[in-house]
Amino acid sequence: MKLTVKGITDGQPVPETFAFGVYSEEDHMSFGPNRNPELEWSDAPEGTKSFVVIMFDPDVPSKADDVNQEGKVVPRDLPRVDFFHWLLVDVPPDMTRIPEGADSDGVIPKGKPPGSGPIGVRGVNTFTHFLAGNPDMAGTYGGYDGPCPPWNDELVHHYHYEVHALDVESLGLTGEFEGDAVREAMKDHVLASARVTGTYTLNPDLR
């Protein structure tokens, strides 16, 4: 399979158009345009019955104590975990393109609804947990929400955009399912996969 993410070159920075948070000289971070990028894929194998779209960041701090704290840094050698930014399952087999902005166009406080959306079925991204303690933002975040790494992180984050071709029409996931559930349900059903990786940072010393 071949995947193209329009505007993102493999290994190069993700444009701010696709980011949840953008650099601000005054207060470190402000909301970005938060548009999903255009994805287009080809050469799916014979027998493909649906697609899954996943976008995740494997570089998120495993401990959030020092995240976005004045006078502190998130050290490069801190153990990291996956943060899911985009989960779409049961994408029809005749669909090979998701237009820019089709699943997200702007930051939506308290999140977009999960479940059946404009493309397939939306899972719940990890902003649901990250923003749970913020009364103005807490909610269930479905679909795409873009990069917003800690502005004091010593590590540049990587963002993996993936499309997986499956041999089943549906993964049977309902309700507020998350990334680990998608990965578990996909096991033994993946016919082919493709990935494009971009980078992003809000740390002014790394930009």
From TrEMBL:
Coiled coil: none annotated. Pfam families: PBP (PF01161). Residues 100-119 are annotated as: Disordered. InterPro entries: PEBP, PEBP-like_sf, YbhB_YbcL/LppC-like. Gene3D superfamilies: PEBP-like. NCBIfam families: YbhB/YbcL family Raf kinase inhibitor-like protein. This is YbhB/YbcL family Raf kinase inhibitor-like protein. The lineage of its organism: Bacteria, Pseudomonadati, Pseudomonadota, Gammaproteobacteria, Pseudomonadales.
